[in-house]
Description:
Chain B: Belongs to the binding-protein-dependent transport system permease family. The complex is a heterodimer. Chain A is mainly alpha-helical.
Amino acid sequence: MTNWSPTVFTRVMLGVAVLLSAFPLYWMLVIASRTNADAVAVPPPFLPGGNLGENIVAVLNNEDAKFLLGLTNSFVVASIVTVSVVIISTLAGFSFANLAFKGKNVLLLLVLLTMAVPLQQMGVVPLYRLMVSMEWTGTLKAVILPYLLNGFGVFLMTQYTRQAVPMELVEAARVDGAATLRIWWNVVLPAVRPGMAVLGINTFMLMWNDFMWPLIVLTPDNPTVQIAITSLNARFSTNYTLIFAGTALSIIPLIAVFVVFGRQIVGGLMEGAVKA
Amino acid sequence: MSLDTLPRTARTPRRDHPPGRRWRSRVDVKAMPYVLVSPYFLLFAAFGLFPLAFTLYYSLYDYDLAGTTEWTGLGNYAALLVDEDFWNAVVNTVGMFVLATVPQMLLALFLANALNKRFRLRLAIRMSVLLPLVTSVVAVAVVFTQLFARDWGLVNYILSWFGVDATNWRAERIPSWLAIATMVDWRWTGYNAIIFLAGMQTIPRDLYEAAAIDGASRRRQFWQITLPMLRPTMIFVVLNSTIGGLTLFSEPTTFYNGNVDGGSQGQFQTVAMFIVKQGFREFDYGYAAAAAWLLFLLILIGALVNFLVVRRIGGTK
């Protein structure tokens, strides 16, 4: 069974992979904690400096950047979308996995098809015109609404419910006289919680990172965090410490989520991949 | 299935059913499945079907800045097919896609193979290769843009040790593609490795044991067992990368400070950036909509080609 113990080459390769994965983040910290003169020095600085707090305060206090508003907006958008997508997907997943109804397979196929279409890029013109005619451009509504449609979520929860909730359990609850919604609440929800967690984390990260659609539909006055970084970048293009302090702030929530839920994220990704 | 005819279990409270109870439970069983899936399909109608249909509609009209619209039939499509800027965007998109995806797939495969061994800190190492995925795209693109800066960027500094002259990564086509492909690969290689790893773990171990007994080397086992058995996972990964790669937007846009021109000569403007530029900088909605349909066509072609390529990979004799 020597096959399963790593060779020296494998160990080195893993080490390099870990280093390369972490390096840009380390670099972000190095520049964010330096002065502007250091950021453009040759040779570049390799160790963090002592100005991190100062630079972060500068970004947060910068009137033009609206960075704090960006962080808040992203948090609001990502939270609302995450909660809605998880609920919508869990309901539909239960229906597809455990209930019998006519046209089920056709509808499920439709869900799969929507997963394959990059709707965000494809439908961008009508979606924008829709937001204009409703006078929603520049508001968070315009960012939130299109993302409530998430075929991946329905697919994931269907697969997860199939495996986590045996049909006998649902039938038994029915015999006991429980109505469908009650079964969902008392039998299905407790069983599919891990799947909901994976979907929730996934959706939150996706929304936090979203860029193209907010860039089109929002203005720099009311940005998400990614738009706030972009305006920083455009307006203060040589003020690296300011920009980097902003990018560091923008990934702190994601790193926090990752540290807390890392095990579930790895597990969820691996499980999802095998089932797909 | 009527509730009343079924034997009562101990858990069922004995109580008289009010009139209409049976009818209500029938409605519940028949209708609830549809009610439960309806939120998704209502959203699908509003934000999926409607935009798709109207993209087609818009693409048949000519819009100009003054706000007048005029029916042009397939005029937008005809104009796109002879538009040098559009073809430039197509070439850039496909070029960066190939430049990013080929090394990424190979690296991810070998990384997955390494991650599949037994070693200490396994979860920690798996998590750290996923770290790039959970950092925000724009933040990362900003960092890489600084790393690739001409005068003080770390990349040029390191290259100078080997006597390479400072490259202006943003100014020229191939260097800009390389810089952007690096950003894409940094982000996705670890993710794809984890997906490949999941696929590898479904391969029965006795296959390897049998091969080892027959004297097959590790390398041979990788090529003759791992790769062919991994084909379904590979199809998933490649299709995913095709959709993501051909709709590339965030990295190249951030590389040019949030501008969708893609460089002074459009040397790294992708099709997605072209669509945003036409639709939302020049307000030529019809043209942008037609370009969106052509992008969709490009993705279909890309997915088909990749699917055929992957089917051949590992098709061992």
